[in-house]
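User: quick one, fold this
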Amino acid sequence: MALLLDKLSHLLNIHQGEGRLVLLLFGFSFSLGFAVVFYETTAFSLFLTHYNVEQMPYVYMGAAILIMLFGTLYARLEERINFDHLLLLTISLLIVGITLLLLYKQLDSGTMPALVIALCSDMIAMLTGLVFWSLSGRLLNIRQAKRLFSLVSTGEVVAGIIGGLLVPILIPLFGTSKLLLVVVFSFAFCLALLNHIVRDFPDAMRVDNAMISEDEDRELAENERIGDFTWHNPYLLMIGALASLSLIGYYFVDYLFYSLAEERYPSEEELASFLGLFFAFIGVVNLLFKSVLSGRLLNTHGMTLGLLFLPVMVGLSGLAAIASGWFDETVLMLFWFVAGIKLIDAVSRVAIDEPSVVILYQPLPVGYRMRAQTLIESIGEPVAALFGGGGLLLLGQHWELSPPIMLVMILAVVTLWITVGLVLRRDYWQMLGNALSKRTLGEGIHLTHDASSLSILSEHLKSDHVGEVIYVLNVLEEAQHSSLADVLPQMLSHQAIEVRIDALHRIERLGMTSAEPDVKRLLYNHMESTQLRGTALRTLAAIGSGDIIEEIIPYLSSGEAELRRGAMVALLRSGGIDGILAAGEYFYHLVRSNRAPDRQLAADVLGEVGVKNFYRPLLMLFRDPALEVRRTSLIAAGRLQNPRLWPEVIEALSRGNLRRDAEIALLLGGESVVPELRRAFFNNKGNIDIQLRIARICGHHCTEAATSFMLDALKATNQQVRMQILRSLVRCHYHPQERELRQRLHLEMLRETQYAAWILHNKLDLAKRPIYPLLTAALDEKLHQLLERLFQLLMLFYGVRRVKQLQANYFSPQADKRAYAIEMLDGLLERRHKSHLLPLLDDIPDDQRVEMLNDLFPYNALAPEQRIADIIVNPSETISFWSRCCALYEVGQHNERRLYPAVVTALRSPNNYIRETALWTLAQLRPHTLHERISPLMADPAVNVARVAHYIHRTTPGTTGT
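Assistant:
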C-alpha cells in the first residue's frame, strides 16, 4: 500500500509531506464544486420553468449588482476580520442563506423564489471561488502552487461530473427545488473541512512571511505611486475591454443556449435532468482538456493562442450554427450546434482563456497586479454584465431575439473580441519587454514557452547590463522555462564575467549534465580569469560524468589560489570518498599553515562546501590570531548551519571588530539558530546591545520558534529592546490568533499607554514653570518614541500596510492628514483599544489628554521642583538617561539648590553619562562640598566621568585639598 501511494505521489508530482494537505484541499474543492453544480442546475431549471428566457437579462444585471455589493462588503470584511474567521463566516453565511432560500421556496410556490434563487447563482460562484483560491494561496507557497494548483482544483471538476450524473437520479426522488438540500449539506461538509484546516495549519492563516523580504517603506511608497494611474493605464483599459467583451459573449451564448433548452425541455424535471447531464459532460471534457491539452497548447503557441482561441472557436461554431439553422428546417440541429458552442465556451474559458488573462497582469508592477485584477473583476466585469444584460433587454424591445439574430450578435461581439485580443497580444510583449528592462516582474511568474516568448527573452539576454541579464535568467528559472537548457550554455560565452559565473552556478544547481562540454571548454580556456575557471571546476564536479575527479585533482597543486579553491570545493562537495581523501590532506595543510591567507582560504572553502558535518576546523579557526581569518570563519559557520557553532558565533556579537560578520552568520543560519539566540538573549539581560542585535536578527527568520521567542522577550524592561522586538514582529507580519496572545499584546499596549500618560503628567507640571525647555524637548521625543511603539503594536492587530499608512499620516506636519488618520483609527480600533489610545493620539492639548485618561491613569499634580526631583531619582526605565541628563543640566544651569539631594543621589547612577552630568551640576550648585565626593569619582571606571572629575578637581576652589 505504501509503495502504491509513493508511486501515485510521484505520478501527481506531490512531494513528501504534502499528501495530507493536497487531500484536504482536493476535498474542499470537491465539496464546493458539488454545491455549485447542484445550485446552478436548480436555479436555472426553476427560473426557466417559471419565467420566459426573455427575462434572463434581468438575472444577468441583478447578479452583477449583487456581485459588486458583496464584493465590496467582502473587501471591507477582509480588512477588519482575521483571515480564517472570514472564511468560516463566508461558508456559514452561505449555509444560512441557502437554507433560507429553500424555506422560502417551500413556503411560496409563486414565481418570486425562482427569480431570487437565480439572482444569487453568480454571487455564490464568486464567493466559493474567493474562498477556495484565497485559502489555497495561503496554504501553498509559490513553488507548491505551480505544481499543485491544477491538481487540487480538479476536485471541482470531478464534483461537476459526479453531481451532474446524480441530478437525473435525485430529481424523481426529491424534486428540483429540494436539490438545494444537497447544496446545504455540501457547504456544511466544506465548513467542517475548513475548520479542520484552520486548526491544523494555524501558521498559514497568518500573513505570509515570505513577503517581507523587501523594504516595506519603499514598497508602500511604490504602491501609492502606481495607484495614481489605475484607470489611466491604456494597457489596463485594454485588459478591461477584453474581459468585458468576453463576459458579454458568455452572456449572449448563455442566453441563446437556455432559450433553446427551454424550448426543447419544457418541464422542470426534464430541464433539470438535461442540465445535470450536460454539466457532467462539460466536466469530463474540461478535465481531459485541462489535464492533457491546455497546458501544452498554451506553452507551445503562447499568448496568440491564449487570447484568440476562445473567440475564434466561438466564432467558427457560430458560423456553423447559422449554416445549420438556415439549411435545416428542424430546430434539433440548431440546438445541438448551440449546445456545442456552450460546451466550447465553458471548456475553453476555464482551460485557456482565464489562465491567459491572468498572464496579462504579469508585466504590471508587483504591487499593482492584485489591485488591477481586483478592480477589473469586481468593478469592470459587473459593469460589463450590466451592459450585456441591458443590451439584450433593449434589443429585445425592437426585435425578436431569434437564434439567427443572437448568433449574428455573438459574431459581432467575437469580431471586437478578436480585435482587442490582437492589440493586447502586441501590447503584452511590449509591456513584458519594459518589465524585464526595469526588473519589476517579481516572483511567481508564468511565461509561455512559445517562439514569441523566447524571442523577447533572448533580446534581453543580449543586454550589456549585467543586472538585466541576471534578472531575466532569474525569471526563466522561476518560471521553469523550457529554454533554460539552451540558454545557460550560451551564457557561458557572454561578455560579462558576472553573467558567466552566474550561469555556471545555475547549471550546477539545476544539474544540467548536457552542459558538460561547454563547461569543460571554459575550464580549459587559459585566457579566462582564474575566478571563472575555479567556478567551472565546482560546476564540472557536480555535473560531470566518468573519471571527472581525476581531471580535477591536479588543480589542487595549481599556482593560482582561485583554481586551488575551486578544486578543493569541487572535491569536498561533489567528489565522493575519493574526492574527500584527495582534497582532505591539502585542506589540513592550509588549516595548519603559518600564513594567515592560507588559513583564511581554508575557512572560505568550508563555507563554500557547506557540508554541516565539516565544522570542527572552524572551532580552531574562530580563535585564530588573524582578524580576517576569524571573520571568514564566522561567515563560513553561517553557511554550514551546524548548531554546535552557534555559541561561538553569538559570543562574537560582543566584539566590535567581529560583530558585523557574526550578524551575517546568524542571518544565514536559518531556523536552527533561534534556540541559541533565545538562550543568549535571556542570559545577557544587562547587555542591551546584544539583546538589540538578537531581536533584530530574529526579525529576519520569522519562523514559529522565532515569533514565540520574541513574544516572550517583550517582557524585557529596556524600551529600546522592546521597540526592536516589535519592529521584528511587524517585519514578520505577525498577527496574534490565540486569545491569550492577543491579551498579552493588549496588556503591553496598556503599559506603553501608561508610560505615555506619565510623560504627559510631567509635561503639565513642568509647564507651570517654563524654564526647562531642554527637558521638555527630551520628554516630547520620548513621547514620540512611545507613540511609535504603540503604532507597531497596532500593526500586529490590524495589519502592517494599513497601520503604516495611518502612522505616516498621523506624524505628518499637515493637520488635515493627522485628522484623517485619527478619524480612520476611530473607525478601525476595537473598543478596548479605542478607550485609551484615542485620548492619547487625538490632536488636542495635553491637559485635555490627561483629563480623558484620568480614569485609567490618575493624575497627581506636583510642583515643578518635585517633578524634576522625581525624574532625576526615579529608577523606572520609563525615563531615558537623556531625559535625566537634561534635567540635571537645567538644574545646574538655573542653580536650583533645593534639588541638591536629588543630584547627590544621581552620582550613584549606574549610567556613566548621568554620573558625569550630576558631577557637573554639583559643581554649579555647591562647589565647596565637592571635596567630600570627588575622590571616588576621579577613579571612576568610566573614562568620561573620571576626566570630568579631574577637571573639576583642578579648576574648582575648595576641592584641591582632598
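User: anything notable?
Assistant: Residues 207-229 have pLDDT under 50 and may be disordered.
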